[in-house]
Amino acid sequence: MKFLSRCYIGLIFLLLYVPILVLIVFSFNESGSLAEFSGFSFMWYEELFNDEEALSSLMNSLILAVSSSVIATVIGTFGALGLHRMRSKYVKGAVNTVTNIPMMNPDIVTGVSMMLLFVAVAAIVKSQSFFGFGTMLIAHVTFNLPYVLLSVMPRFKGLDKSLSEAAQDLGCTPARAFFMVELPEIVPGIISGLMLGFTMSLDDFVISHFVSSPDFQTLPLYVYNQTAHNVKFSMYALSALIVVVILVILLVVNFAGSVGSRKASKKRR
Amino acid sequence: MENDILIRISGVSKAFDGETVLDHVSLDIHDKEFVTLLGPSGCGKTTTLRIIGGFETPDTGDVFFDGKKINDVPPYERLVNTVFQKYALFPHLNVYENVAFGLRLKKTPEAEIRKKVQEMLAMVNLKGFERRRVTTLSGGQQQRVAIARALVNHPRVLLLDEPLGALDLKLRKDMQNELKRIQRETGITFIYVTHDQEEALSMSDTVVVMANGQIQQIGSPEDIYNEPKNAFVADFIGESNILDGVMLEDYKVKFSNHTFVCVDKGFAKNEKVDIVVRPEDVDVVAIDKGMITGTVTSVTFKGDYYEIIVDVGGFKWMLETSDHVAPETTIGLFIEPEAIHVMKKSEYSGMFGDYSSFSDELEHLGDPEEEVEE
Amino acid sequence: MRKTSLFQKIAAAPHILWAILFIVAPMIFVLYFAFTDAEGKFALANIASLSQYGNVFVLSIAFALIATAICLVIGYPLAYFMSRQSPRAQKILMVLVMLPMWCNLLIRTYALMALLDNGGLLNALLEKLGLHKVSIVGTNFGVILGMVYDFLPYMVLPIFTAMTKLDKRYIEASHDLGCNGWQTMTRVIMPLTVSGVISGITMVFVPSISTFYISQKLGAGKIDLVGDTIERLFQNPSTYNVGAAISLVMMLLIIISVRIMNHFSDDERESGHGKSGKGGGIVP
Fold first, then answer.
1. Is B73 in the same domain as B194?
2. pLDDT for C216 beyond 50
3. Would you say A246 and C97 are in contact if contact means Cβ atoms under 8 Å apart?
4. What is the number of domains present in chain B?
5. How far, in Å, CA of A136 to CA of A217, rounded?
6. Which of B159, B172, C178, C237 has most Cβ atoms within 10 angstroms of its Cβ?
7. What integer is the mean pLDDT of C231-240?
8. Touching check for A30 and chain C: CB below 8 Å?
9. Mean of the per-residue pLDDT values for chain A?
10. Residue B255 falls inside a structural domain
């Protein structure tokens, strides 16, 4: 039984990874064929790194991901604080439900709904070049918000009320008590919300597809445009790079995590 | 005595969402005293403590500290520190930083902080634990850190909110002794909240018994045990047989169809009263020597004594005796005048029956794990 | 200490304002466009014209249901077997499940298409072995395969999480009470992991029914799903209104199915998190 179950696990993961592995291998194929590996070459990587458009969309993606996740984290963290202290369960529930709409809805619906909003506003202000970084930023902040709330809210809920009281008992004013003993308990939630938002933003294609303009193209949009018609081998190279980068990040986070936290606890001293 | 009063609570009431938690409570606490607020959950003892700590403000009445009214003084300006129910240690700081927290806020020089923290950790037997994370400590160790963190600030008063509630029995006994020692060594006034009567009796100089937001009795542990003011106190503190009786005249009381000689006086003629007789104060004697007689219904071995239940005319008495008595035998009961305690009737009269349905387990089930107030 | 300061009162204001402007308002615009014509006058024509998209809806629902069912059938045993490995192996397998989730969907779909395409590696190998070429890209099978391939990790992760949270003593207790392996599975493990299954189903069904990239690439543009239709209608301002109507219907469809699904789960907290599973595991 143990052997069979391991075979099953192996088989499924093999099927899951074959396309990715093939893609990585063929990104080094000099012939530009998908069927036959004729020789090792870095030519597609060279082409990729000489592609101004690819580099500028990478830059755009990073700018957008950083700015949208930071804005969403700030708004969402204060939002969580306000909601946590809010007395009315009714308002609290309503805000929570509304915030979660972009998370529950399919991306395509979120995308078109935001597009319609921008179209309507553009018609009202009679602007031609309304779509661009601004609309992208708004859309990304919006779909990052529920993830920030999801990470931060439980931290507020889990706060031990007597922590703040203990700090006040020892001489802190209420405001100082918040910064000295409550904030350190919430920070991990804020960081995970920020990270989640950053990656969601970097990864998003569907919503961006509806609210972007050709002047501001992110990496996923660039990949989409490049793969729309013909096969392009520099995209293989790009994909291979992304897979490797993500693998490294995942390994670091999951396996160096224990070492990291030990270090952090030492540093505090 | 009057001028060493440190804290005076006068006519304090407090309600949460329309529900009265404290009802005109007045209490004086003397300097260097070990005072225990004792009562079942929801009796208002924790709220009283939180009012002294400054975490709640009284709806009516005043709180004085050293003669000055402190109703609106925030917690961080009071010369009072608290050991919280679940310790409330700061999880992001290690043991040393937790203890140093209050001193840091007062901008104490680093060298002095180090000296004071070391002293304090030595006092609570936690030398060498400075760098440990508080989350890795056992319950007893966390408890000691919480005490050190509060005491290092040299408060005039230390408030302790059920500090031993989460510890197991053995540890609890050790910590009781240790707290008593610390209180003696430091000379700081301790105000201690608990629902455990044994804890209250063994540690305190003064016990304040509370129920339903009111103080039932204030006194030394001996007073509280020997001279309970009403049926509630008699029942809550230790085991007791509480019977209805009639005070025939001074020094003469009738209950269980027998007229007993007692040491109480000053009641009206034929006044109805509550009688308390502690199980250990009843002597088991031969039938002809007994004042009253009854049938033994159960016998439980308790180590150094037997606990027996005796049916006397339908009322089940609890007795403690060192001699074995067989069940179903009829015995005589002999009660000395000093063993009979006569109380005025109160709102609690008749609420506590006999021992007909008594079992240790039930008692235990009724024992709340923790106070859920507010 | 029950007082709420002014700061705490207004702390949520930007959040609430943002939610109204950019979540509620866009939804209202979807409604508005769905019920107006190109001149902005009230019209039911868009809703009426939906009937001609009936088969698109049926096809999309069918594809999404089939893909979800296949993911469940493959994913449930996988999650179960994974949860019975050593802790270290579990950690590695977990990373292996998450890696595809963190890779862009476009890249994964593109990789699969490249492999299965007529000029791809699979057909080249078949040819070498002297077998017939198989054309998968451009068929219904290809599109469903793409959905299963892309979304399987979203099924496995929540079920795996539910499995690892399952107290091992329940399994021991059920053996102790006389259940054999299969009975333990059906009577104890399955009921206790329902919440994971529900969120897995949601996380596969929702993106499957709304996808357009998978059908574009693996359907080679021959298969038209709701997502493709919406995407196409929003290319041209004159068809925004019909597009809004279709989006509205799809949204309602999903809300209803998620509601029904959550009904089966007694634990509301675990299910209905939509796509949030992506955060699982990497959050410190």
1. yes
2. yes
3. no
4. 2
5. 10
6. B159
7. 90
8. no
9. 87
10. yes
Q: Is C141 helix (H, G, I), strand (E, B) or coil?
A: helix
| H/E stretch holding C260 | helix C240-264
Please answer yes or no on whether A163 and B131 come within 8 Å at the CB atom: no
Residue B113 phi, psi dihedral angles, 5° rounding: -55, -50
Nearest residue in C to A104, CA atom: C274
Q: What is the mean pLDDT of residues B322-350?
A: 89
pLDDT of residue B365: 45
- Tell me if chain B has a CB within 8 Å of the CB of A179: no
Q: What is the pLDDT of residue A263?
A: 40
The verdict on a CB contact (< 8 Å) between B81 and A170 is: yes
- CATH number for the domain that contains residue B28: 3.40.50.300
Residue from A91, A104, A121 whose CB has the most chain C CBs within 10 Å, to mutate: A104
What is d(CA B114, CA B51) in angstroms, rounded to the nearest whole number? 32
User: Which residue has better confidence, B360 or C143?
Assistant: C143
Contacts of C10 (CB under 8 A, 6+ apart): A82
| pLDDT for the residue A242 | 86
- Among residues of chain A, what percentage have pLDDT more than 90? 43
Structure-token pair, residue C91:
């950690």
Convert the pLDDT of each residue in C184-214 to its tens digit: 888 888 888 998 999 999 999 999 999 999 9
Give dist(CA C41, CA B158) in Å, integer.
74
Query: Based on the domain organization, do B101 and B202 belong to the same domain?
Result: yes
Query: Per the domain annotation, does B232 fall within a domain?
Result: no
Please indicate, yes or no, whether residues B193 and B251 belong to a single structural domain of this protein: no
Locate B194 and state its tokens: 């608990």
Tokens for C187? 């009577």
Compute the mean pLDDT over every residue in chain B, rounded to the nearest whole number. Answer: 89
Q: How far is CA A138 from the centre of its chain?
A: 15
Looking at the DSSP assignment, which residues form a beta bridge with residue C42?
C36
In order of their start, the domains of chain A are 1-41 (no CATH), 55-236 (1.10.3720.10)
For residues A238-243, average pLDDT:
86
Confidence category of residue B3, pLDDT binned at 50, 70, 90: low
Tell whether B312 and B202 lie within a shared domain: no
Q: Is residue B361 part of a domain?
A: no
Contact A76 C207 (CB under 8 A): no
Burial B11-41 (b: 16+ CB within 10 A, else e): ebbbeeeeeebbeebebbbbeebbbbbbbbe
Q: Is residue B30 part of a domain?
A: yes
> Over 50: is that where the pLDDT of C165 sits?
yes
CB B27 within 8 A of CB B33: no
Q: Which domain holds residue B68?
A: 2-226
Domains identified in chain C and CATH numbers: 51-277 (1.10.3720.10)
Interchain contact A157–C (C-beta under 8 A): no
CA distances from C172 to A232, C77, C79 (A): 55, 19, 19
Final residue of a structural domain among B172, B203, B226: B226
B19 and B80 fall within a common domain: yes
Residues 79-138 of A with CB under 8 A from C: 79, 81-83, 85-87, 95, 98-110, 112-117, 119-120, 138
Do the Cβ atoms of A162 and B133 come within 8 Å?
no
B211 and B270 part of one domain: no
pLDDT above 70: residue C20: yes
pTM: 0.78
- How far the first Cα of chain C sits from its last, in Å, is 32
Q: Indicate whether B166 pLDDT > 80.
A: no
**Among residues of chain B, what percentage have pLDDT more than 90?**
63
Strands B68-69 and B80-83: unpaired
Distance of alpha carbon B310 from its chain centroid, rounded?
Answer: 29
Of B365-369, C62-66, C185-189, minimum mean pLDDT range: B365-369
User: Considering only CA atoms, which of C139, C216, C98 is closest in space to residue A224?
Assistant: C216
R_g (Cα) of chain B, nearest Å: 24
Same domain, B257 and B187: no
Are residues B254 and B210 part of one domain? no
